[in-house]
């Protein structure tokens, strides 16, 4: 198959999933062309069957903003033509699927199929900017096939838009670099009274990640036992949070590590992973922690309960319920046997249900179905 993939190239789950999928497809012998404004951050290497095409976003005289969606559509046309693409896989309805649908119209090639994967931000973005609604709807309805990364996201999309297409759920999967951990025995630390409980959080610090909840949680936890928080990533609320922890005299309890290419070492040093999001279609960062055998305390937002099974792989807490977070973390701090059981269950659940060998064939089968359809 000759496949074009367009995605966000920077840090974030959708870019990781798109890149990992492309690498798998290329390894399976398919020709894969990535098309984006920068090389996806995990694609930075040479591999047979794998190509990258940079979208050049030229300044358009008189306009204040460069027209990225048009530049992307033009690049998709160019690549589809010379590489004879059969299918473009767009990660996100806007702007990627919109550009892919436009490219298809420009090419007047009905045989070129567009598959769109919804990752979540489209829905929340529309919550913030209702003006995008018709464009998202158009892009979904004009795609030849649509997938969503969780049951929750598929349901939400049907509720928020007039969707004429069936949305197939293909969940996210464990990135390749974590696979080496599969046979590593799960261990948890024996925490003595003065040992610090190490909690990890990874996100892009957007307001919906609710990082300020972590400050409130730690402010109260510190009165029960010593705690240290590793904050990985960067984004709009990082400096707000750093100010807050200084103001509250908690600075020594937090380490801000910024954007990290590899998080395995950090996760392996952590006793728990905390994701208190107010909205989350899937939560790839939680899945990565689970693959490392680190129990996750997550909120019940969106698709998180599909990944973190409450009472089995760890605890799921109602969004914003600080008391519940404190109870759950304290219980896991004091009960080493439960922490070990959750760590084992989390890892088993991650590898059993979200292994790339299980999920990536679902994308291939989906492509084949879309290519066969009239
Ligand atoms: O969470 C973000 O803000 C980043 C965003 C992205 O573009 O990568 O993540 C979305 O896609 C991920 C991969 O499918 C999911 O794991 C995240 O849950 C989803 N984020 C939201 O729904 C807020």
Entry keywords:
374 residues; 2 domains; 7-stranded parallel β-sheet; Rossmann fold; alpha/beta; 6-stranded parallel β-sheet; binds ligand GMT
Please identify the oligomeric state.
single chain
**Strand arrangement, largest sheet?**
3-2-1-4-5-6-7
Strand content: 15-25%
The assigned structural class equals alpha/beta
The gross shape turns out to be globular
Note poorly predicted spans: none
> Helical proportion?
40-55%
Number of domains: 2
CATH architecture of the largest domain: 3-Layer(aba) Sandwich
CATH class identity of the largest domain = Alpha Beta
Our Rg estimate from Cα atoms comes to 21 Å
How far from one another are the termini? 18 Å
How many DSSP-defined strands?
A: 13
CATH superfamily of the largest domain: Glycogen Phosphorylase B
* CATH-derived topology of the largest domain: Rossmann fold
Brief write-up:
With 374 residues, the protein is an alpha/beta fold.
What would you say this structure looks like, in words?
43% of the residues lie in helices and 17% in strands. The chain has 374 residues and is an alpha/beta fold. It has two domains: 2-173 and 355-372, 3-Layer(aba) Sandwich (Rossmann fold); 178-353, 3-Layer(aba) Sandwich (Rossmann fold). Strand 4 (87-91), helix 3 (93-107) and strand 5 (113-118) form a beta-alpha-beta unit. The longest helix has 18 residues, at 336-353. The chain is globular. The mean pLDDT is 95. Bound molecules: ligand GMT. Ligand GMT binds at residues 8, 12-14, 17, 119-121, 149, 172, 204, 206, 208, 279-284.
